[in-house]
Amino acid sequence: MRLSFFNGDEISSDSRDAGKSLTRTSRNDIFGKRQWTNILLAVNVLAYLAQTVSDGNLLFWGAKINSLISEGQLWRLATSSFLHANIGHLMVNCYSLNSVGPTVENICGPKRYLAIYITSAIASSAMSYWFCKAPAVGASGAIFGLVGSFALFSLRHRGIIKGIEGDLQQIGRVIVLNMAIGLLSQGIDNWGHVGGLLGGAAVSWFLGPALEIDSVSRSGRKMLTDKAPIFRLFKNR
């Protein structure tokens, strides 16, 4: 497991198994640790190209449209997160995902990263469904879920992991940018942002990482163990 931050600090493990000891190491190239971020970026771009080729039909088929969701088209709660209103909307979300995604992917690993992204996307659409009647599309809700995940990680590990202030400033800029776009652009609503943020924080609380100091080596390195609630649940069964 490797935890990589915007400022270059990392925490790594010699084992893929949860619960093994973690120590701080020097920075490596994070581009080898962002496979799913790259895939999600590609999916969003390809979906937009498909929208263009279909003359907007794909946008109608997959957008969050409350009346159609009420009729049972629940897939729209997920598909709407891969569609975008226009090229500017797509570019802003790709920039935001590229800014936040690699850090969260390194922190959580691929499985938890995907779980956070997809859950946040659905939570975003669900919140928008309940509080906003207008049609909506966009990956920003899922991205806000990644932001919520990293914010929770930072709060959980304050005092254990140092040097993440710059990371928090970076995701703060992502929040401001997306909220501004949400206020100014048609087809985007900030209720979805709130839903994604809360969804990402909630699933991250359960899935982790939730690192605790297990021991300290003679050299002063902290040995950390992942004690996320999900591991306790399976342990008790």
UniProtKB/TrEMBL annotation:
The chain crosses the membrane at residues 113-131, 137-155. It is a multi-pass membrane protein. Residues 72-208 form the Peptidase S54 rhomboid domain. It holds the Pfam family Rhomboid. Signal peptide: none annotated. Its main location: membrane. One of its GO terms (molecular function) is serine-type endopeptidase activity. GO terms for cellular component: chloroplast membrane. The keyword Ion transport does not apply. Residues 1-20 are annotated as: Disordered. Belongs to the peptidase S54 family. This is Peptidase S54 rhomboid domain-containing protein.
